[in-house]
From TrEMBL:
Signal peptide: none annotated. This is Glucosamine-6-phosphate deaminase. The keyword Hydrolase applies. Pathway: Amino-sugar metabolism; N-acetylneuraminate degradation; D-fructose 6-phosphate from N-acetylneuraminate: step 5/5. Coiled coil: none annotated. Allosterically activated by N-acetylglucosamine 6-phosphate (GlcNAc6P).
Amino acid sequence: MEIVILPDAAACGELIASAMAELVERKPDALLGVATGSTPLPVYQALAAKVRGGSVDVSRARICQLDEYVGLPAGHPESYRSVVLREVVEPLGLTEESFFGPDGAAEDVAAEAIAYDRSLAAAGGVDLQLLGIGTDGHIGFNEPCSSLASRTRIKTLTRQTRLDNARFFDSLEEVPHHVITQGIGTILEARHLVLLATGEGKADAVAAAVEGPLSALVPASALQLHPHATVVVDEAAASGLK
Ligand code: F6R
């Protein structure tokens, strides 16, 4: 695992956007797995700036989701489909056709999760998966005690994660209890994992993931198993490292 410590979130965003741009240059139809939440926004903004500036052509790149809330109506502004369309697909000048994710409004969520794993494989697998990390060490929405071999499935969010995500909704009650998330085993199949963490609030989780034992109690520690994992942190998020 390589650890890159940079001064701030903007520098982290720029570095990862450059890695994505280089990947797309090498492999124009690369499949980029994107995370939602606040942390990755500087990455998407930096990549969109490169597209606008003409230094990279992402027109053949494909985008896929890491996870999705269950039960939000189609088109809800906080569904991850809406967020990825707004923050990634549209700013990169891509169309909805280049983007796919699990349907959180599916009638049979279990079947939808299995189908999503299959569609990732059918698409040739994820080339670069960007990950955030929860304050409890989750990746995707694999909360502590998720199996390290888990596949895409329905999960229940912990109270802490619902509290963390309440800022995107009008009230805590509106935050869904369930999600479809790529499993840890699914995530580990991506060719390159890039975990981004910024801010002091992530320092303990980063230290546990990087320097702690491999443990289902800290799902992000599963990156230790991956042959090509990069952890990009700002100085605040790195402050718990030895
Ligand atoms: C979101 C996701 C989550 C977030 C994590 C951190 O798609 O998979 O694991 O990456 O909850 O969220 P932020 O970046 O908002 O602190």
